Amino acid sequence: MGAVELDPDEEYAIIPVSILERILRYATIVCQEHCPVGRDPSTCPYIVNLTRKLGLPPPPCINDYGDYRQDTFRVMIKDLEHKYGVGINEFINNVRRRKPRSLEEQTDFMEATFYVGVLKELSDIKKIFIAKGSDISLTSSLP
What we know:
This protein is mainly alpha-helical. It is 56% helix and 0% strand. The protein has helices at residues 17-34, 44-54, 62-65, 70-84, 88-98, 103-123. Helix 4 (70-84) packs antiparallel against helix 6 (103-123). The model has no long low-confidence stretch (mean pLDDT 87).
């Protein structure tokens, strides 16, 4: 593995994987109880990536959105754009201005804002490193 470049403006934490696993198990329970209303598009991709990296059961949304890849969310955005005949941002702004006209439109609005948020996060996602054993240097980390 080549040199790891860290963001000098970012702070990093080193925690045992066993604690991270507990936090992720808790987070996926919260996902089950509060999604889709309480979901955070900037957090969901990290929960998905971390559960995968650690071999934990994924959050339930994996059935709806797959592995949180940009192309998946672009397709879902295109589907909504086709359904409403306008760009995704125009759809979101229209619904915000006039409020949803139906339960279906309200659901599509929630999905649209989520898709756009996830796509934005995926375009600038931060790397996650897992170091094994007592050598926690980043040169021995797994990307």
